[in-house]
Hints:
Cathepsin D, subunit A, domain 1, 10% helix
Amino acid sequence: xxxQFTRDTDTDGLLGLAMSSIxxxxxxxxxxxxxxxxxxxxxxxxAVNLKYxxxxxxxxxxxxxxxxxxxxxxxxxxxxxxxWGVKATAYSIGSSTPTSAALSGILDTGTTLxxxxxxxxxxxxxxxxxxxxxxxxxxxxxxxxxxxxxxxxTIGGVKQTVPGKHINYxxxxxxSCFGGIQTNEGLGISILGDIFLKSKYVIHEMxxxxxxxxxxxxxx
Length: 220
């Protein structure tokens, strides 16, 4: 555990929601918190209901139908690397026609941003007036008053859309804001973090065939 993490007075710890196979506790590997409580749950799942500029919630062992609208789109989860892996077949920016792209990534509530292939991030910010790859920040920034288009990934044949306003992560200097979509260069994988999750109700089901369920969060 990093010294920076232990000094963070706003953080109480980490809640293990991935697979126990990647737990690095030594000398005896331990189960994650989720694997530990799994036998006690009514259903082998947890659901994530993060919010935009508000406190979110997690449901363990049940699905709260009051928190989403429409149907749930279930897809198989790839857990081979110890994470909740998911595949997308296309992306779209704003109301544009989806562009085919094979994308493998993981859902991670412990990651704030969306980290995605450089070509996709570049295509997105090409649609944002004044956006640039800021050498000082080492990331994409844009004028805080810029209008941001929605961003969608097609997962299991269904478009999962991130509202444009969610992609304005935070101001970094006078009039300049940090983008919620950044390149995954150096990571080796795409990560769909909180920016992606905050408009969804996402079910993580650990059955004999792990799967992920996506529904539209109520009120978004």
